Amino acid sequence: MNIDNAKSQMRKGMLEYCVLLLLRQRPAYASDIIHRLKDADLLVVEGTLYPLLSRLKNDGLLSYEWQESTQGPPRKYYALTPEGNEFLEGLDTAWGEIANTVNILKG
Amino acid sequence: MKKNITINLCGRLFNIDEDAYELLRHYIDTLRSYFAKQEGGEEIADDIETRIAELLEELKNQGTEAVNIDHIKEIIHRIGKPEEMDGFEGTNDEKNNDDGHRYDSFQSAAKGALNNVRERTKGKRLYRDPNDKKMMGVLSGFANYFGGDVVWWRLGYTALVLLCFTISAYNFLWFMRNHWLYVDMSLWGVALIIAYVILAIIMPVAESPEDRLRMKGKEVNPQNLAEELAPLSSPVENTGEESSANQEAEAPSESQKRESKRRESSGCISTTFGCIGGIFTALWTVVTTLFRWCIYAFGAFIAVMCLLGIVVLGVIAISPENTIFSGHYDFIRSAEFAAFMPSLMKLFYLFIIAALITLAITAYAIIHSLLNEFKQMQPMPYRQRIALLVMWLIGFVVAVAAAVIGIPKFNKADEDFYRKKYDAYLYEKDIHDGIYIQPHEWEYLHKNRWKVVNAEGCNDRFTAVGEYYVEKDRWNRYLDCYNEDGRQRYRVERTDTLMPGRYYLHCAARANGGGAFVYQIIDGKKELIEIWADGNTRGNIFAAARGVTDSISREMKSEKISKEEAQKRLEPLRNMAIANGGKGYGWNRFAFKPFVITKPTAVSYGLTSDYQFTGQPFRGQWFSACDFVFEKLDE
Q: Which of B69, B149, B365, B538 has minimal Cβ neighbours within 10 Å of its Cβ?
């Protein structure tokens, strides 16, 4: 039980960073993000994504536009904002530093 | 076969089983209420709804025509519960909730019982459990609140009740004289049953999921709510065909209740009693169902009585004069009642109001409980129950107090009034010419044509019995008057009309002091004879009789006459001679002067001590007279 706890803490920390990374690669629908995060084992519960997306959008790091779909009602199509790009670059630096430290500690 | 409905989710239509719909709806409501607290929470909820719609669309594309409850459960599992969405894992919370509230055994309660109970019941409320009830769910509510398996509570309670009745039956059979013991034990048994019924009325039933959580002591949050709802759906799939048949016409919660009830009841009893479990369960069900229906019938009866009582009270309240006061017609309209009335009427209306409240609450409580059993109703919250109970108690106490104070007061005033009236009536009818004469004396005086002319100082007594001068007629009534101070001015008179002729009047009289007279009045001429004051022994009547009887006896002894002759002569005198044990009662015979009348004349005569009439004061305390007779003399 304890390791799952630790793992979920790690995932929780990484989730925001990974979402922004994905969106930097290319804009996507929420379902796409879920799909790819699940593949990477970063997301257990899909619902986690939505509050996160909402927060990122409120902070101005993301934006979305409505896209029509032949299969049903319109869907939100998310993309990074310029502020989001800048923020992500900052996260890149932070990630580099942490990875470095961890690697050193690992020995 | 299940009922299927069509829903519109984000503009898309889906065919979904009704129970699945219920679950989905509850899930979405939970999410919405959870995110409503957050900034932009509505949008998050919308997004999630969209996601759900996408997933359902996928199902449809895969060929699923109707969405069933498993699909919904899968979707909920995928998207997750609101708590999980913030990144917290569920395991921590589960640990917190499972701190042994439900599973402490009775052994741990034995050590430091009170603290243990407080700990165990912290955060819980006492509800009746509708999902696990044999009768009204009181004992399972207790099990939830205090902890412990409900089987023990039921066994314990049943054993207690049976014990009481068994002991009383035993006593009845073997100790029939020990009535007190017999009554006591069965009273306890009955008291236990009544306690159960009262508890069933007071304890609210945990209908909604929120209530069920409170009953078990879990915090009311969306996670627990979703959890609370989810387990209920599982028995449905376990019992397969049977349950499907039931679900068609009912709301999911109703059938789920029945299923879990069946599952739980057969589980508890069967495991405990092994192979005879089946028979026992059937018997038990029959007994409890019968008992439950008896309680329903009794409750309905009481409720009907209360309603009738309310109607009756209403009628009485509107016109008291014609209903409860109708037997006291005169009293109600008298001046006394008018003076007495305001306080009584206040009490009366207070009683009516209090009694109405008590009856109304009783009826309402019973009807509500009964309806709740048969048809889903909004269960009464705790607060309302307590408030109603308090109001009932107040109403009951006030009504009883008002009655206990008011009724005796009214009765006493009524009695006083009628007694006064009766006395007045009595008094009035016995007043003759301004003189009050007791009925039995009046009867004598009137029959014998005696008229009381003066009654001053006579102490309302004008005759007497007991000392008549003939022993065998001792209780003949005679004229008599007594006053301790001799102040009576008694005069009683009779008037006869006599035909022309020669007469004399004689009578018997006695006194214990001078100044009492017998008199006669002819043509306005008064003749008085003073009564000899011999007291109430001897007197010349007695003496004469005695003298004669003595001489006859002597003659008999000396055999001058035969015994038969003696008897014959003794006979008329004997009674007078033996009066007052041979002492006589003091009576003397008096005779007035003979007189002649040439035409029919009215002659008056009588007995008196009136100094105005006699010219002398009376110097004794009492005097008597009787047997006034005119003897006609030959010319």
A: B149
The phi, psi pair for B127, rounded to 5°, reads -120, 165
- Closest approach of B287 to chain A, Cα-based (Å): 49
The interface predicted TM-score (ipTM) is 0.88
Instruction: Give the residue on B whose Cα is nearest the Cα of A75.
Output: B50
Q: What angle do CA B492, B493, B498 make, to 5 degrees?
A: 165
Q: Do A72 and B86 touch (CB under 8 A)?
A: no
Q: Residue B632 phi/psi, 5° resolution?
A: -90, 130
Tell me which chain B residues have a C-beta less than 8 angstroms from the C-beta of A72: 10-12, 53-54, 57
At B71, list the tokens: 């699909």
What is the tens place of the pLDDT at every residue in B332-390?
A: 666 666 776 777 778 888 888 888 888 888 888 888 877 777 776 666 777 788 888 88
The model carries a pTM of 0.34
DSSP state of B591: E
Q: Which residues contact A41 (CB under 8 A, 6 or more apart)?
A: none
For chain A, domain boundaries: 2-106
Is A51's Cβ below 8 Å from some Cβ in B? yes
Given this model, what pLDDT does residue B236 score?
A: 39
For chain B, the domains span: 4-88, 95-102+120-292, 319-429, 435-535+586-633, 540-584
- Give the tens place of pLDDT for each residue, B468-522: 998 888 899 999 999 988 888 999 999 999 999 999 999 999 999 999 999 999 9
Architecture of domain B435-535+586-633: Sandwich (2.60)
Instruction: Select from A1, A11, A48 the Cβ nearest to the Cβ of B80.
Output: A48
Question: For an interface test with B, which of A44, A45, A56, A76 has the most B Cβ atoms less than 10 Å from its Cβ?
Answer: A45
